[in-house]
Amino acid sequence: MELRQLRYFVTVVDEGGFTRAAEKLHVAQPGVSAQIRQLERELGQPLLDRSGRAVRLTQAGSAVLPYARAALTAVDGARCAVEELTGLLRGSVAMGTLPSCAPLGVADLLASFHERHPGVEVTLTESDAGTLLDGVRDGGLDAALVAFGGSAPEGLATQTVLDEYLVAAVRPGDPLAGRDTVPLRALADRALISLPPGGGMRAILDQACTAEGITPRIAFEAGDPGVLADLASRGLGVAIVPESTARDRADLCGVPIVRPRLRGTVALAWRAAGPSGPAAQAFLDHARTSLAGFTVAAS
């Protein structure tokens, strides 16, 4: 069994097929297929089901995958440890983020880390909160900016970046604009403007509506809270946004939602067991320092 075979196997799984894996590895596809077949012969079981249009893991493949990942991580960690002693950090880091977290300076964070450690390959994935949390837990992501309500997700360590109440944002002149607060039930018949399903802020709204027996009337969805605010400022509905988003807009009135109060947290999350290697540790230290300046707490 060779490390190359394990790397090819993991890449095929991650890329969803032999063609994309070969492109990722910069090798010919027949070479990837041959190495994985050799691995399967050594293990005595097929690891991949090739019968359909998409390559799928067999039961044996699912059992082998975490060990293959662990072996590659260990080798990469050993290599990085030696290179770190010589003053040159190498390796790879995978970060995830919600689309709505762009204003937190994600691009600057990645650029400044690359400037410090040009030998580390950094990748960025945008997705919904649930997918990102699963990615951090299973090792596909080293860290992610996620949103959630209540306590921190199980199995993860977090650093809070934003901790805010959600408000109903409307343009001046709207019937809600002069109110001090608005009960969630009072929004049942209003056209709401919200993040799409899967986002942490949307999950908080959906869970609260379910608990109150309300079916929200979502008229517009967008992945950026700034876009939600723009739509509300044009009178297209009530935007459910973080308090700071409405507070920074002269063309919006942010009305606190009560009964219940809706509160969300945006945090940097990573595995509670710690980073997978020196490169990931360096990135996590850099990210935690960079994001510390964005901290906003609910009042």
TrEMBL record:
Entry GO MF terms: DNA binding; DNA-binding transcription factor activity
Q: What GO cellular-component annotations does this UniProt entry give? A: protein-DNA complex
Keyword Magnesium found: no
Domain HTH lysR-type, chain residue ranges per copy: 1-58
Q: Which InterPro entries match?
A: LysR_HTH_N (IPR000847), LysR_subst-bd (IPR005119), WH-like_DNA-bd_sf (IPR036388), WH_DNA-bd_sf (IPR036390)
Q: Which PROSITE patterns match?
A: HTH_LYSR (PS50931)
Recorded hits in SUPFAM superfamilies, A to Z, give:
Periplasmic binding protein-like II, Winged helix' DNA-binding domain
What protein does this entry describe? LysR family transcriptional regulator
Please give the superkingdom of this protein's source: Bacteria
**Is Transcription given among the entry's keywords?**
yes
> Do you know which Gene3D superfamilies this protein is assigned to?
3.40.190.290, Winged helix-like DNA-binding domain superfamily/Winged helix DNA-binding domain
The record's annotation in PANTHER family points to: HTH-TYPE TRANSCRIPTIONAL REGULATOR CYNR, TRANSCRIPTIONAL DUAL REGULATOR HCAR-RELATED
Q: Name one Pfam family in it.
A: HTH_1
Question: Which UniProt keywords are given for this protein, alphabetically ordered?
Answer: DNA-binding, Transcription, Transcription regulation
> What is stated as this protein's family in its record?
Belongs to the LysR transcriptional regulatory family.
Stored CDD domains: PBP2_LTTR_like_3 (cd08436)
